[in-house]
Amino acid sequence: MLLEQRQKLLFIGDSVTDCDRAKPHGEGLFHALGNGYVSVVDAFLKANYPELGIRVVNKGISGNTVRDLKARWQEDVITQNPDWLSIMIGINDVWRQFDSPFIKDHHVYIEEYQETLTALVKESKLQTENILLMTPYYIEINENDLMRAKMDQYGKVVKQIAEEEGCLFIDTQAAFNKILKNLYAATIAWDRVHPNEIGHTILAKAFLNKIGFDWTK
Amino acid sequence: MLLEQRQKLLFIGDSVTDCDRAKPHGEGLFHALGNGYVSVVDAFLKANYPELGIRVVNKGISGNTVRDLKARWQEDVITQNPDWLSIMIGINDVWRQFDSPFIKDHHVYIEEYQETLTALVKESKLQTENILLMTPYYIEINENDLMRAKMDQYGKVVKQIAEEEGCLFIDTQAAFNKILKNLYAATIAWDRVHPNEIGHTILAKAFLNKIGFDWTK
Amino acid sequence: MLLEQRQKLLFIGDSVTDCDRAKPHGEGLFHALGNGYVSVVDAFLKANYPELGIRVVNKGISGNTVRDLKARWQEDVITQNPDWLSIMIGINDVWRQFDSPFIKDHHVYIEEYQETLTALVKESKLQTENILLMTPYYIEINENDLMRAKMDQYGKVVKQIAEEEGCLFIDTQAAFNKILKNLYAATIAWDRVHPNEIGHTILAKAFLNKIGFDWTK
Amino acid sequence: MLLEQRQKLLFIGDSVTDCDRAKPHGEGLFHALGNGYVSVVDAFLKANYPELGIRVVNKGISGNTVRDLKARWQEDVITQNPDWLSIMIGINDVWRQFDSPFIKDHHVYIEEYQETLTALVKESKLQTENILLMTPYYIEINENDLMRAKMDQYGKVVKQIAEEEGCLFIDTQAAFNKILKNLYAATIAWDRVHPNEIGHTILAKAFLNKIGFDWTK
Amino acid sequence: MLLEQRQKLLFIGDSVTDCDRAKPHGEGLFHALGNGYVSVVDAFLKANYPELGIRVVNKGISGNTVRDLKARWQEDVITQNPDWLSIMIGINDVWRQFDSPFIKDHHVYIEEYQETLTALVKESKLQTENILLMTPYYIEINENDLMRAKMDQYGKVVKQIAEEEGCLFIDTQAAFNKILKNLYAATIAWDRVHPNEIGHTILAKAFLNKIGFDWTK
Amino acid sequence: MLLEQRQKLLFIGDSVTDCDRAKPHGEGLFHALGNGYVSVVDAFLKANYPELGIRVVNKGISGNTVRDLKARWQEDVITQNPDWLSIMIGINDVWRQFDSPFIKDHHVYIEEYQETLTALVKESKLQTENILLMTPYYIEINENDLMRAKMDQYGKVVKQIAEEEGCLFIDTQAAFNKILKNLYAATIAWDRVHPNEIGHTILAKAFLNKIGFDWTK
Amino acid sequence: MLLEQRQKLLFIGDSVTDCDRAKPHGEGLFHALGNGYVSVVDAFLKANYPELGIRVVNKGISGNTVRDLKARWQEDVITQNPDWLSIMIGINDVWRQFDSPFIKDHHVYIEEYQETLTALVKESKLQTENILLMTPYYIEINENDLMRAKMDQYGKVVKQIAEEEGCLFIDTQAAFNKILKNLYAATIAWDRVHPNEIGHTILAKAFLNKIGFDWTK
Amino acid sequence: MLLEQRQKLLFIGDSVTDCDRAKPHGEGLFHALGNGYVSVVDAFLKANYPELGIRVVNKGISGNTVRDLKARWQEDVITQNPDWLSIMIGINDVWRQFDSPFIKDHHVYIEEYQETLTALVKESKLQTENILLMTPYYIEINENDLMRAKMDQYGKVVKQIAEEEGCLFIDTQAAFNKILKNLYAATIAWDRVHPNEIGHTILAKAFLNKIGFDWTK
């Protein structure tokens, strides 16, 4: 496993990360990590590696785009000084283009997305080399679906940044694609975005596999 | 316009019809018709034909399948003795097959759907010849999407029953397909089923056009 | 239709415009436009002209008089820079004179009304020539009713300003008068001011007809 | 004063009488008499004639018509065996004809009204001669207003029954007409039916004056 | 009647005056005057003298002592510039000495009470000569009761100030004493302080009688 | 101490006993004994005599009179088969005569009180000789107060029954009288009936002293 | 993996199983399986074996003992006819002996526990051979702790029944013991019974491992 | 008894002291002292020594450590200027080390604890010599339990400070240890920290005994 004793792992992102986590701290007693993939990751880290004492912090905020992350990066990431940083952002950047097509100010187009996300990663690399980039996703099997196609483009940007900046790359879209061969999207998420427990487990599995988690421990 | 003075028009269906209508009566003061297409239809009937005094009743119930309609047909339709009867059912019959694939008891397959809906229409024809059948729909442009394809099959059943039983036929799927050429599905409904005001207006327009409504009156 | 592609249409007014719209933005997801005539207008614009992509913003606030509009004109109108601006104000200016006759500070008399509304229109004309003035109204058929008579005077002021400043003029009182020949006021509004869905449809129709809306599209 | 020591005075009616009184008993601690004219009457009876110990019971129920009174007359009036009985009913009998004109089943026309009210009075006369009939009213000064005119007809029926059956007659419409010379209807009730404290005081005064209440005591 | 056309009458006091009045204005629509004696006074002023158009404002705040009144006198009285000012204060000044005997800071002893109330009256006399002083009270018939006896002392201070400063004096204790001959205290107020509708009517009657109200008008 | 190992002690009474205890069982986890004197008694029994394992059950119900106890005696006392039974009833029997003087049906006069309480005690004596009778009380120092005097009469009835039936007698009025020499009634209960923690402690002390509780244990 | 295509897996137990699952069905949309180990098991079954389509039902009810299970076995287990049945019961049977030591009726002692659980297993074996017995547990590392020691005895009963009846046996206490070497009990559950996400993950892991779940699939 | 007439006794601490006390004052009407040991102490002081008039103030805040006390010492203790000061702090200082072992910032280790508590005591000694130090506790009988052992160390620090600074010392752990010989911990507190009424009574008894309280008074 890549994580070492007493390290701090910070997740940041949108509603998929947030999942009703405790505000503002995002850690502590009473379900402070929310009820999504962050909580699943934390529970398995503690259950399988209790001796490591990994500290997990959730800084997701519902509705956030990368533009919103930029505005709070200093407070919510830099001052936290994490050993590991996981970023999953972009769903709202794309979604608003499709559910609010006429409110242009709410859209974050791909150039701004790429530029902003790159800058945030670069800034955090001054603190840690251990950055994980999770792609945004759309739980839709049809690659020609307009929003899925757009989301794939943003996903490619994430992959490119991961390669350029030496981050660990987690292809959440690929993880969902695999399950979509057997389950229709609505089994996981009515709106193709906010997953139920099955979907959050898929995200957690993708994350844990990437950091070399030993499931049989 | 097909409706005549003092006639009663009754809508029955699922959550798309229900829209938080008053229970159990489905008519009266204080938004008793709910906030969906039934309310839009009523408001335009009153606004354009106040002299006709059409009485509108909403008997939609969220989550209903045609199996549920059968169980309450006597109480909610027959004893109401409507002059006009509009039925839109089938979305949940199909949806449960896709969002709860392993709970077979919640599925209403196409044979039961056809048989039940036909029986209900036949029973109501003893009261009135003025029956409108609205297809179920799925706000998804891709005809090869599994749930859309299944919904189309149920829609064809509705069309067939309408032809056999001499009902007015309203193709709601076609109405949504037209708008989907310009607007992505998420602009109308995150879950492709429960529409916002735009979607309910599309349903109301399809209904009103079918009954010969004069918009310029 | 007068509105062109990608234009922004802003409504401002009192509770009839507000209708529980999202504060402070007045646009976006989840019924942000409220449940009144603004929402009906928006839904029909999207349903009949999806290719135009009109952006609708609702800045109504319950209880407002023209004096209140003045106080927030800079923030809620000017900085929004709309292509089309629709103003319906005056009901509370008059109503307080009749329901709170002894609290003079809550009354906005006709001189202040005319002066203030004129100034606001003039200020907005620096931004756009496309201004629609909707009269205040009182859903009361008796022209000799004291409050109806007073409201008519305020309506005449609106008409005069529209003519002087070259605005489109919408006579909402006339629209209600027409329906009142067939329906008693209480069918539309118990208090003769806050309409139900029928009344909001009448307002929306008056607005859409004025901008050359094609209902049969 | 007509009422004598230890007598029970029972009020029955619709929402104007109800005013959130305690259900089902309509008497007792904690504002059990509601916050309308019944409470004002009781408070003045206790304040001016504490030595009499009049027992006041409120059996009003919102939305009731005379048809509803009939259904509960046995339980809510006869078994209570009051010494004095005050009835104010008819507003909803009329109002539904004007706010829900197309739902005929909710209307109570004048023949049924007269017949039913007469029967109830006759039945109660077997218990007590002390019956007060209060007219329904509509707080609208224009006698030619359709609903006011209709309400006046129902009021005449009440007057006729009072004369035929030897009841005390209270003309609430006349009481409101007097105040409407100085105050516009909206100062008392936005919907011309549910009065504020001013209107309930007018009703209480009319009642108390009829029973020979000494205000200066 | 002492009050003249269009005059403003302001009440200030503690919870007995407050009675859930609208904050902060204390006047306007929707039961803004609360549900205590102020509302009764207002309703009778409007019902009997609608032509006068008296404006009533309620500035009571629960729990207040004269020390609290002093802190808000400028904002809640002076800037309101009333034509008539009614003050009822002192119950909490005394009550805290009896229900919280060991928290001395919450007590307002008689010297501070007299000094403060005198100063407030003097300050307001610069605006208006029409000041009514209502005594605090305790709904307890036993004059030797410790709290009743103390309250009587505060009442005497009020009387003295009224005489010295030429204010109208209303002896609320005397008004309650009279009714207590027939009704036990608990019939009016379980805690001997917060009256039900009977008690508020007694207060309103005492006030209205003092200003020459004509009940038979 | 009179109570022996594993005995069950059941309290029955009105709101003073109830104090929001768990319904219907009146024992168990999560403050099931309510927050009044029963809970204080239980806590001290457990704290000082943990080895005895006394089981305490609370069957108080707010508003009850002895007439109400009679109606539920079989279910709430007899079937519980307690080793010790404590009864405190009568406050509402008296109070209703003073706060609702004109609603005679709510009064339980002293003959009915004595007869009913005697019958209940006799019935329970078939099960256990360990019955404690607590007097009703009124936290008012003035013996000539009408309600206090009446309560004293009921208290004497309790004493008489205790003597006749061989029950332990607890004079709660005497316990309050003692503290009233130093504290005014309002320090313990605004309404002279529902005590705060001080008053419940006084009741618990009186009870515990009667059963020979060793405070210094 | 032991489970085969389309099989139904039913969990029954107490609050640890319940976890706010949907009542009464225990399956379906919207987190119907609750937020405990049942949900984790279901999510991993769906995520790793979507092609199997396992149907999971949760019939846990908070506070249940084996006595409660017996009362609802017919309705909640037998009529459900599951292919796999998992039972975890006994915590409350023991806990009540320690948190409510004096309320003997709430205790289920080991003889009744063994007899009842055996009978339930025998009854269900007529339907299916696939029964899993999970031990009750107490998250306390000290084996000499009185409640832990008692819980271990109940666990041994479960083991014995599993062996006698040929059930799969899951030692949840052993699973917790392992983690307790690294984490203090309070990290998993303040009350040593209701676990947080870490504890539920430990339970789910123990279950999944027993049925041959392939974590790396 | 050590406390003298009119003295102020202030309690400060964490959730065990807080118990939903009124914020911010911590004294006054309506259960302002919360429902824990502070309230029990106050009630017995008032019940047994009403003539002394001891003023009790509760400044406990849930979740506090000694670090939090330091931050509010000036406002919540010094400016209150109490005659007697009781401090019970340390449970959270220890607990966080056991329930949140990986969030080091939430831990207050023993050096910081000792240093901070000593400083606070020294500062308060400038005001009063009457300081009571209550140990933190853990309701766990096993002295080798890791958290109990740690809590004992903190308790020893409290004892040492009490001796060095001349404070009264209350060994709450010893008080609980005594009862734990007869009652299992869960009978007093499921989480071994937040006691029910039995536990709060034990704390109150320990406190009252230390100040020479006469229970038989």
Whole-number mean pLDDT of chain A: 97
**How much of the sequence of chain A is in beta strands?**
5-15%
Low-confidence stretches of chain A: none
Total strand segments of chain A: 5
Helix tally of chain A? 9
Overall shape of chain A: it is globular
* Oligomeric form: homooctamer
**Integer tally of domains of chain A:** 1
Biggest interface, chains and residue tallies: A-G, 26 and 26 residues
Distance separating the two termini of chain A:
11 Å
Structural class of chain A: alpha/beta
**Any idea what the radius of gyration of chain A is?**
16 Å
CATH-assigned fold name of chain A: Rossmann fold
CATH superfamily of chain A: SGNH hydrolase
CATH architecture of chain A: 3-Layer(aba) Sandwich
Question: Can you list the strand order of the major beta sheet of chain A?
Answer: 2-1-3-4-5
Largest sheet of chain A: 5 strands, parallel
Q: What level of helicity do the residues of chain A show?
A: 40-55%
H-E string of chain A: EHHEHEHHEHEHHH
CATH class wording of chain A: Alpha Beta
GO molecular function, one term (chains A, B, C, D, E, F, G, H): phosphatidylcholine lysophospholipase activity
InterPro entries (chains A, B, C, D, E, F, G, H): Ester_Hydrolysis_Enzymes (IPR051532), SGNH_hydro (IPR013830), SGNH_hydro_sf (IPR036514)
Protein name (chains A, B, C, D, E, F, G, H): GDSL family lipase
Pfam family, one (chains A, B, C, D, E, F, G, H): Lipase_GDSL_2
